[in-house]
Amino acid sequence: MSILPRGHVLALLSAALLPGSAMAAATCEVIPDSMTEFPASVGKPEYRKELLPAHDVRLKVTVGPDGRATEVAVESSQDPEPARRSALLWRYQCQGKQGGVAEWVLHHPAQQCQLNITSKNYNPPRYPPKTFRAGVQGQVLLGLQPQGDRQLARKVYVAKSSGSEALDQAALEAGRKWSFDCSGPVDGTEPAQDAPITFALN
């Protein structure tokens, strides 16, 4: 019969007696490629002259064993919902296989672009005929990342699905034709903007 060293015994007792929340959670980091696929959003486009200033967003993300966020806490001087929604789309890598917590500060540079309303109106989403006849309705939330003056979006993605693949695809096809008005050349750090698209039968 083997005898465990005293330190090991105490460690095992502590692990058995302490609740999971009292034990230190593993450290996690967001996977950069997932942020490239789903750029961080600052909210829906506002057709106004004043765009959002540079600001920081503090994120605390609880990550499950599958590397996906299960809970997101946000501190921001702006609307926190776009940041929370973005963090839920990203994938994470943790120390160990049980998940953990990712904490970091995300810096958003000042916005330089806003969606060109004319390009949006000239390229409305088209209701897929089969989906229309089937009576399927829903709202798709697109994310669009600008890339330059009067240019199409650098990235267009589904930030929140309607639940219908056909409606999601119709929204993506429309969003890929919309352009932005920007104050000058824009690099890949420009935050994305949300664009809700509603498909309704009436």
How does this model look, in words?
The chain is of the alpha+beta class and 202 residues long. The protein contains six helices and eleven strands. The chain has a three-stranded antiparallel sheet with strand order 3-2-5, with helices on one face. A three-stranded antiparallel sheet has the order 6-10-8. Strand 2 and strand 3 form a beta hairpin. The chain is globular and about 55 Å long. The N terminus is likely disordered.
Span of the ends, CA to CA:
77 Å
Number of helices: 6
What form results from the Cα inertia axes?
Answer: globular
Instruction: Please state the structural category.
Output: alpha+beta
Multimeric state: single chain
In round numbers, the mean pLDDT is: 86
Unreliable stretches covering 5 or more consecutive residues: 1-22
Q: What is this structure, in a nutshell?
A:
With 202 residues, the protein is α+β, with helices and mostly antiparallel strands. Helices cover 24% and strands 31% of the residues.
How does the SSE layout of this entry go?
Layout: H1 6-17, E1 28-30, H2 32-37, E2 55-63, E3 69-76, H3 81-89, E4 92-94, E5 100-108, E6 113-115, H4 117-122, H5 129-133, E7 138-145, E8 151-152, E9 155-160, H6 165-175, E10 179-182, E11 193-199
Identify the notable features of this structure and list them briefly.
three-stranded antiparallel β-sheet, 24% helix, alpha+beta, disordered N terminus, 202 residues
